[in-house]
Specification:
single chain, two-stranded antiparallel ribbon, 5 helices, globular
């Protein structure tokens, strides 16, 4: 099953980074592509792609990585596990197309897109070096360190009524306890969404831990 994937930026020369953006439930790659434009400006030599899920949302609008119809703490994980092979396949396909290694790959997720990106670190050893986790969560907190060399940047609205910011706080605490690299930023007054401050925070983190390009 194919999905819509929007190329936000394709450098004339070979890309030295790959930045993939993943939308939330009921959304589409067009809206995340608008977010991708900010990353493109800051990383002009990066291939920036907004990736759409191929699955139509149960609620009749947009797309979904997995169904949230009747979702519970117990059945969320199996749904994610079922969707994960395609998610990983998409990332690997873009790495192959661009020739960009996992060390220079960044996954940027929002909400359900963040869930998929975070959960991928538990099943795939070497997929990406950085994850920007906007307003998301792990389905279940990791029991062992995530993929070595992966840095996670949690950014969450303080007033998020959809995914409680406690999810990002507890995830950051767990990763710290496991010896994994991560940052945590809680945006005051922000609900379930993104604003320029949150995006700029993410870009600043990526600039600070930008890996060397060989």
């Amino acid at each position: 099953m194919s999905s819509e994937q929007i190329i936000v930026q394709q450098p004339e020369a070979r890309a030295n980074q790959l930045i993939l953006l993943f939308h939330g439930v009921g959304d589409n790659p067009i809206s995340m592509g608008e977010i991708g434009k900010f990353f493109a400006v800051s990383f002009p030599q990066a291939q920036v792609v907004s990736v759409g899920s191929p699955d139509i949302c149960d609620f009749g609008r947009g797309f979904q990585w997995f169904s949230v119809q009747g979702v519970t703490e117990k059945n969320r994980q199996p749904r994610i596990d079922a969707a994960m092979p395609l998610f990983i396949e998409i990332v690997r396909d873009w790495q192959q197309k661009t020739g960009v290694t996992p060390e220079n790959t960044t996954l940027v997720g929002f909400s359900q897109g963040t869930i998929m990106a975070l959960e991928s670190t538990k099943v795939e050893e070497h997929l990406a070096s950085r994850i920007v986790a906007f307003s998301g969560r792990f389905a279940n907190l990791p029991e062992k360190p995530i993929a070595a060399g992966t840095v996670v940047h949690f950014i969450h609205g303080e007033q998020d009524p959809v995914i409680n910011p406690f999810q990002s706080k507890s995830a950051a605490e767990r990763l710290n306890a496991l010896g994994c690299a991560c940052t945590l930023n809680i945006q005051a007054g922000m609900a379930h969404g993104l604003d320029s401050h949150m995006i700029n925070t993410a870009i600043s983190h990526l600039q600070n831990d930008e890996p060397p390009v060989h």
